[in-house]
């Protein structure tokens, strides 16, 4: 078997892999970019994303009246990450570097490539704790014009231009099975050539072998993603602090997100740290028109929906919609059930329900300004209404008793108590008689509407859920939705993969989700949102530049 040679091999053609390849090619290096999926899957998970990016102190923020700073962002990051392990030394340094990047050149760098953002900055992960705790103190979630495909496009253009110049060769349907190690140094990869596949993007492709390959290079950059579609691996790494792993989960990522390269790189001598840190959503709904197996979509909720557990009890503060993803997950898993309910009104769904994913936001993804402007008209966005009509988790009724009966029918387990639901809804509604309240969620609704972006496009005017004028009533069953791997391959600030003794494993680098978005866990225990795509870009860029500098 002939061994193809290059300056560098990049394993994984997602966003981090594209960023690393683009930087290497710009430095004049010859790159082999490998991926086990077909060419139309270029861009990986990023293609399916909402395209949210965390920036700090931007023109968009300032136009919305938001005062932000690198100091405030770092305070929020550290309070959220809660680094507490010896192996968090490099992740902490990555976090400091990333916040500097987000407050510095990140926006200008992407803007120069043609990227633009929706003018209303969203406020994700609001925390609900004290100033030094988890959460974003201010809105920082910038939605890319074009969503996930709009984030991928500039890097795909750079890579394809490098292909035209003869610097990059694309090798799709090439699955890496081993890193080649000679005298303690990674010198290449070997693996299986998979049969061609004509499946649509996101659908499972075949794993039929039609050959083998081996490639050599002075550096291998692993950018293969996380474990989100491998539910067995998710459960294997599930931390005790989050309770018993769910029996039923939806997948927020396509099936090829299998985590294979983590074990392969570890077998070559690399160290995996923080495998128990992960980021799964609690507001997943079954996709009525699925693309991949167990395909779930996340609701991006405003703060007004009433959140009930499977028995009908209200979730306690600060486990409110949009406040603390992992805190809420921990609470839910402590209830003995792995699903919950939103109860809301038509007025709330029209203003507050967004759906994560490029395919669920055709106006933003397609850069259709006329369609975007329809969001301010009466009625929920088309994709949301489609879920309300076709989604297995949605029920609608004019009166609460009828709604509860439909909820019980959907759940099918008999645990929802009608009296408990009624008591919770009525008690909440009594708090809406005055413009002030002791109810933390009602207080948060009033507070949110002081931010212009929330008042314009995100938070419904406070009202009683049982007000007939705000109806009909809606309930949505929510599932646990797998998504991101927060731990991963341990790397230094040059993205070099480290061994268990803390020294670099020669010849191998890692970036993106496989490296915990930097260092083996730049987010610590929790994320501020808008930091996953940005983490891929920053760590991919870092790896590409570091390899180019090392090669000279």
Automatic annotation (TrEMBL):
<feature type="domain" description="FAD-dependent oxidoreductase 2 FAD-binding">
    <location>
        <begin position="7"/>
        <end position="533"/>
    </location>
</feature>
<keyword id="KW-0285">Flavoprotein</keyword>
<protein>
    <recommendedName>
        <fullName>FAD-dependent oxidoreductase 2 FAD-binding domain-containing protein</fullName>
    </recommendedName>
</protein>
<dbReference type="InterPro" id="IPR003953">
    <property type="entry name" value="FAD-dep_OxRdtase_2_FAD-bd"/>
</dbReference>
<dbReference type="InterPro" id="IPR036188">
    <property type="entry name" value="FAD/NAD-bd_sf"/>
</dbReference>
<dbReference type="InterPro" id="IPR014614">
    <property type="entry name" value="KsdD_DH"/>
</dbReference>
<dbReference type="Pfam" id="PF00890">
    <property type="entry name" value="FAD_binding_2"/>
</dbReference>
<dbReference type="InterPro" id="IPR027477">
    <property type="entry name" value="Succ_DH/fumarate_Rdtase_cat_sf"/>
</dbReference>
<keyword id="KW-0560">Oxidoreductase</keyword>
<dbReference type="GO" id="GO:0033765">
    <property type="term" value="F:steroid dehydrogenase activity, acting on the CH-CH group of donors"/>
</dbReference>
């Amino acid at each position: 078997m002939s061994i193809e040679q290059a300056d560098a091999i990049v394993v994984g053609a997602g966003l981090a892999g594209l960023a690393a390849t683009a930087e290497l090619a710009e430095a004049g290096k010859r790159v082999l970019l490998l991926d086990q999926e077909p060419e139309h899957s270029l861009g990986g998970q990023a293609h399916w994303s909402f395209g949210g990016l965390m920036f700090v102190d931007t023109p968009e923020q300032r136009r919305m009246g938001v005062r932000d700073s690198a100091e405030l962002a770092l305070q929020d990051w550290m309070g959220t990450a809660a680094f507490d392990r010896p192996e968090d030394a490099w992740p902490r340094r990555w976090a400091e570097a990333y916040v500097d990047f987000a407050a510095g050149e990140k926006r200008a760098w992407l803007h120069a490539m043609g990227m633009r953002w929706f003018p209303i900055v969203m406020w994700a992960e609001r925390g609900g704790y004290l100033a030094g705790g988890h959460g974003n103190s201010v809105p920082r979630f910038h939605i890319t014009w074009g969503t996930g495909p709009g984030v991928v496009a500039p890097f795909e253009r750079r890579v394809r231009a490098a292909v035209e110049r003869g610097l990059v060769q694309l090798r799709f349907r090439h699955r890496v099975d081993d890193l080649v190690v000679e005298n303690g140094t990674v010198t290449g990869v070997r693996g299986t050539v998979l049969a061609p596949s004509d499946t649509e993007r996101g659908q499972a492709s075949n794993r039929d072998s039609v050959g083998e390959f081996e490639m050599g290079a002075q550096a291998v950059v692993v950018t293969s993603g996380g474990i989100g579609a491998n539910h067995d691996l998710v459960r294997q790494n599930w931390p005790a602090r989050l309770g018993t792993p769910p029996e039923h989960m939806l997948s927020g990522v396509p099936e090829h997100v299998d985590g294979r390269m983590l074990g392969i790189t570890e077998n070559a001598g690399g160290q995996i740290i923080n495998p128990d840190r992960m980021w799964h959503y609690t507001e997943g709904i079954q996709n009525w028109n699925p693309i991949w197996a167990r395909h779930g979509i996340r609701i991006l909720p405003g703060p007004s929906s009433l959140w009930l557990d499977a028995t009908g009890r209200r979730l306690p503060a600060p486990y409110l919609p949009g406040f603390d993803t992992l805190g809420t997950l921990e609470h839910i898993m402590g209830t003995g059930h792995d699903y919950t309910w939103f109860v809301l009104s038509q007025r709330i769904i029209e203003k507050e329900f967004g759906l994560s994913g490029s395919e669920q936001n055709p106006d933003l993804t397609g850069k259709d300004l006329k369609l975007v402007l329809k969001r301010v008209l009466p009625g929920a966005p088309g994709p949301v209404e489609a879920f309300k009509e076709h989604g297995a988790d949605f029920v609608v009724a004019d009166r609460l008793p009828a709604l509860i009966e439909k909820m019980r029918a959907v759940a099918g387990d008999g645990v929802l108590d009608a009296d408990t639901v009624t008591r919770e809804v009525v008690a909440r509604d009594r708090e809406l008689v005055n413009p002030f309240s002791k109810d933390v969620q009602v207080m948060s609704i009033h507070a949110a509407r002081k931010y212009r972006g929330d008042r314009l496009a995100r938070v419904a005017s406070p009202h009683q859920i049982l007000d007939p004028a705000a109806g009909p009533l809606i309930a949505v069953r929510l599932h646990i939705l797998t998504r991101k791997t927060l731990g991963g391959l341990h790397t230094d600030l040059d993205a070099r993969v480290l061994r268990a003794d803390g020294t670099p494993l020669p010849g191998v680098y890692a970036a993106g989700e496989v490296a915990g978005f930097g260092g083996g866990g730049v987010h610590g225990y929790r994320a501020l949102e808008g930091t996953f795509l940005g983490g891929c870009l920053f760590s991919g860029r870092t790896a590409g530049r570091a390899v180019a500098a090392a090669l000279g």
